[in-house]
Amino acid sequence: MQSYGRFAAIYDRLMNDVDRKAWGDYVLKLLGEGRKTVVDCACGTGELTLRLAAEGYSLIGQDLSEEMLRVASEKARRARLNIPFIRQDMRKLSLHKRVDAIVSACDGVNYLASRQALSDFAASAYAALKPGGILLFDISSRYKLSTVLGNNTFALDEGDSAYIWQNVYDGESRLIRMDLTFFVQDEETGRYDRFPETHIQRAHSEREVRAALENAGFTNIEVYEAFTMDAPKDTTERLQFAALKGE
Questions:
Q1: What are the two backbone dihedrals, phi and then psi, of residue 129, each rounded to the nearest 5 degrees?
Q2: pTM of the predicted model over 0.85
Q3: Backbone dihedral angles phi then psi of residue 79, each to the nearest 5 degrees
Q4: pLDDT given at position 3
Q5: What string of H, E and C letters represents the secondary structure of 85-150?
Q6: Which residue numbers in the chain have pLDDT < 50?
Q7: What is the C-alpha to C-alpha distance for residues 148 and 156, in angstroms, rounded to an integer?
């Protein structure tokens, strides 16, 4: 599993084009009424975590990256939100008590790079939920990772930061290797610091995800084209899953 390094410090700047409010509103809609204790798995810099906490939910933020958790904790402190952030593997959640909901947004589950890892996460989430609890997560679809991103190169220039993003997709393993080179301007000297990051994601199919959830014990499994309540299409780039733990 990927543990973000120096990327954590510039992650939010490079995600400026993502409508975080709309994403948070969508998750709030899916959470429904009466669920108040939430774990945000692979919470990253805590954008979703803070948005849910600001709505009155009791949050725990979980991530494997110390750097991401450090950024998230500082953002929560500045917002005067009391949110515990814990460094754990999402495949092995260990909580003091079970919660009403577990969420994961923006590809956290894609970083589970095997079918076994996906199954382990589903089982861990099931055990961590109260009866009636809900698991919500999205993934970049196999179509997106294999066709839109796979074997392509992208670049972004934000002035004080930029990256070159090169991807290689392997159809047999369903893994995509993302090699990123970042250039970040030093505020004092004006010079650009260059550093690399490599990320590995797996293109889980809808069928694989459903099977992992069913095997873990989840029921009422729904899948949508992300940010809608519509059924996904062959060209849908992001899938949203919702699954319930029985009463």
A1: -95, 150
A2: yes
A3: -85, 0
A4: 47
A5: EEECCHHHCCCCCCEEEEEECCCHHHHCCCHHHHHHHHHHHHHHEEEEEEEEEEEECHHHHHHHHC
A6: 1-3
A7: 16
pLDDT digit string, tens, across residues 45-87: 999 999 999 999 999 999 999 999 999 999 999 999 999 999 9
Q: How far apart are CA 127 and CA 115, in angstroms?
A: 19
Buried residues in 87-101 as b, exposed as e (16+ CB within 10 A): ebbbbebebeeebbb
What residue type is assigned to position 71 of the chain?
V
Q: What is the pLDDT of residue 46?
A: 95
Looking at residue 14, its pLDDT comes to: 67
Enter the tokens of residue 76.
Answer: 């929560």
**By the 8 A CB rule, do 63 and 43 touch?**
yes
Strands (E), the chain: 37-40, 58-63, 85-87, 99-104, 129-140, 153-157, 161-170, 175-185, 192-202, 219-225, 238-244
- In this structure, are residues 90 and 62 in contact, taking their beta carbons and an 8 Å threshold? yes
> Residue 194 forms beta bridges with which residues?
183
Pairing of strands 58-63, 37-40: parallel
